[in-house]
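FORM 7B: Structural annotation worksheet

SECTION A. Query
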Amino acid sequence: MRRGLRRDLKAYIAAAYLACLCLPAAVYAQTAGTPPGNDTPPAITGVTISGAVIKPGTYDFPAGARLHDASVTAQINAQAWFLGAALLRQSAMEPQQRLKVGLLFELNANRVHALAVEDAELHELITRLYRAVEAMPVTGRTVAQLDPLQQLILSNNPLLENGDRLLYPRKAEQVRVTGAVMADCVLPHDPSWQMLDYLKACQRHPLAERNSAYLIQPNGTWQTYGIAYWNLQPADVATGAIIYLPPQPKRLSPSTRGLNNDMAAMLATQYQLGGRFSE
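SECTION B. Predicted structure
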């Protein structure tokens, strides 16, 4: 009797799990708090899904549709790399445009500062960073959970917005080091390496900060880590990550204290630097 009950319970759980994977948008609409009435809420239009998916394309969804609806519709294939996937939103474009303009202003202020104090090394480094930022597109990249199984948790499953773009790359195999280095380095990912190992493999600029660096993970999250022997912190450097080695703050203009944080935030929007989006 007990064995039969256990079998029935397992079958029930499996059926419920499969039902969740294909949960229709109408169910999500109920949880979104759509008020009852005769008026039909506007649809979510122009959602584009591309990359390592079986059914790429541009789709419309009913009001209340969520990220998981898009993932299920596109049928993401086994080669998709969820950690490096990107959600691009129109609503994030304007704030990121302001971020880019502000960062360029900070960099230009430091070029003027370098000329004023006759610091040729700083002027060369800041000019190179200015040109790199100037070439960066404003992507609208938003931090989001793009693993369909993880999206079954409601907090990982936001409402879709008009014009959303979901990009699923194949897994990257490299780590990029940028910032106060003599030239950007694209290094093979080694699971045994810490952030300091990658920094040692890339020639530093004379003005490079010695105590901390920024780790931008392929999902768009970032934070600072200690890299000196006295404050060294372990860091899980995922494949496709970007390591930003900042210039020494004491050499920068006193009016641009937030430059390095803004640089890390801008790099976090540059999803194309970490994944294989062109394949």
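SECTION C. Observations
Residues 2-88 form one domain. The longest strand covers residues 44-51.

SECTION D. Sign-off
Analyst initials: ____
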